[in-house]
Design a protein that fits this description.
2 copies of one chain form a homodimer.
Chain A lengths: L1 E4 L4 H11 L2 E2 L2 E5 L5 E5 L7 E5 L6 H17 L4 E6 L18 H12 L2 E5 L17 E4 L2 H11 L5 E5 L5 H11 L3 E8 L5 E5 L9 E9 L3 H12 L4 E9 L6 H5 L2 E6 L7 E3 L2 H20 L1
Parallel strand pairs in A: 1-2, 1-5, 5-6, 6-7, 7-8, 9-10, 9-12, 12-13, 13-14, 14-15
Antiparallel strand pairs in A: 3-4, 10-11
Chain lengths: 302, 302
């Protein structure tokens, strides 16, 4: 087994290799003066299983292209199997045609990966209109969740009697609810109604007293952070003592400043490498790769 | 028939539409805050033939991705056929593994296009180790040449008795030779031997007197321009009166300044949009699209 990365998840790739006692081998990736991709394996992959670890952030397009180039080249060099571990999978939010003529990007991304890789493993993909990854992937697609490691972190750092877990909108409640259940903490969800670009009303669906509580807001993707900031404002107005936001995928496309100015402590998993990483998803991925390996061995023995 | 572009060849796309009396319809292409591509057709393509005109420069990766997104979306919206007109096709120079472990980018690029488009039309692709586009494309792949329009331009602007056409290296001689034959002008080819990074010897293979001549250097791709500059130096040292460089594909990745400082007049075709464009390839493409259309009509009538 060779573990490599196309540039975005090198730390995680190395950590997975250590835990699995596998070889981490870096790819050489650069650009020719004309902008063409240059990609090179620095170890023989012939007959081997190649695990490409690459989160699709930043630069989802470049990441997708690099993953395809790395996968196709591995196959061309005789790799037995190519597995993509994409802790963060981009494009998933464009899961329908909101207006006539639009690209359904998630389907196109999946089609490209279906052609070039043998299996995909991802963590908490943004499944909203799609019930399952099977809707778009024809290759085996494994959906892992960081809920267990996030719940562990919360249990260790927060007092169960004084903490409330909040989903900042209905789409994110699945994560908040599951993590709350694992920690034994109460949870609720907010609902945002936008009247004008300036006027927004945030309502708590299942009222829970927040006065004096430590509030933990959970979201699968923290992109601009606006949703988190609005949820934090609401929680503060209801008397919350402290606000922590935990994102499975911390994109932080507008940086951290606005979130910090709003008095929010920001934490993320290492699905996407970032200074806010405090929760390690490697154990979850290792388990999935080990069970893949043992399933294969069982199959070979039969 | 709908003609569109993914951003790089809009002028040419509009010119083709005018000449073919077809509809030019712009795509809306932008990025979400997280970097995901947003792409939208602004006219119905259902049942229609969609021609995407897109040179793969600048940003070959982004161009390839946009072309795939545009093609897949057209198909998803019911387009009858998707034809890519890529006057400049990138990646073609990586046509073998120069070192173990390297990606053969041209094969990967072709595989991606094979899956997403129905036909490709390109102009003077850099075929060096591949004999034909069929080596990498399974879809119909049409190789046009700008030789005729370049020869026309030279015949109009240069005096046959006073002009010599030069290929700056062996790879480019196929273009110089063919254009010279069409203009009735003499041609020769240079050969570059590199001793150290500084020491290069340029030799003329078939000696032709250059004293007092107008020299026209022809290359398929002008990338950094270094090869052209070395050829120009040689021609000047042999007494050439003036030096003009004509590139089918003017990438000019280091700009024009060095070329201009070396006293070279630079001209390109509009395969890639650039201020040096003086030679229009639209007539060549129009002819190919018309013959495609009439072949289809013949087929339908049978």
């Amino acid at each position: 087994m060779i573990i490599t990365s196309c540039g975005n998840s090198i730390k995680l790739a190395k950590s997975l290799a250590r835990k699995l006692k596998a070889q981490y081998s870096p790819l050489t990736i650069s650009s020719f003066p004309d902008g063409d991709i240059y990609l090179k394996y620095n170890t023989s992959v012939k007959g081997k299983k190649v695990i490409i670890v690459q989160s699709f952030h930043p630069s989802p397009n470049s990441s997708l292209m690099r993953v395809i180039f790395a996968a196709e080249t591995a196959k061309d060099l005789g790799a037995r199997k190519v597995i993509l571990v994409a802790p963060y999978l981009a494009y998933m939010r464009q899961d329908t045609r909101f207006h006539a003529g639009e690209a359904i990007s998630s389907r196109i991304m999946a089609k490209l990966l279906n052609h070039s890789i043998d299996k995909i493993i991802t963590i908490d993909p943004h499944l909203h209109r799609y019930k399952s990854l099977k809707t778009i992937f024809t290759i085996p697609a494994v959906r892992l969740t960081a809920n267990s490691v996030i719940a562990e972190y919360i249990s260790k750092k927060f007092d169960r009697a004084k903490t409330v877990i909040i989903g900042p909108d209905r789409e994110s409640y699945q994560w908040a609810e599951s993590i709350a259940a694992k920690t034994g903490m109460p949870s609720t969800v907010l609902e945002k109604t936008r009247f004008t670009s300036k006027k927004v009303r945030v309502k708590m669906i299942k009222p829970i007293p927040l006065k004096g509580k430590d509030v933990v807001i959970i979201d699968d993707i923290i992109s601009t952070g606006h949703t988190i900031i609005e949820a934090a404002k609401k929680a503060k107005s209801l008397g919350a003592k402290s606000i922590t936001a935990i994102g499975v995928h911390g994109l932080f496309v507008e940086g951290l400043l606005k979130l910090q100015k709003a008095g929010i402590k920001v934490i993320s998993t290492n699905c996407i490498e970032h200074t806010t990483n405090k929760i390690d998803v490697a154990p979850v991925i290792v388990e999935a790769l080990r069970s893949h390996e043992s399933a294969r061995k069982r199959l070979t023995m039969d």
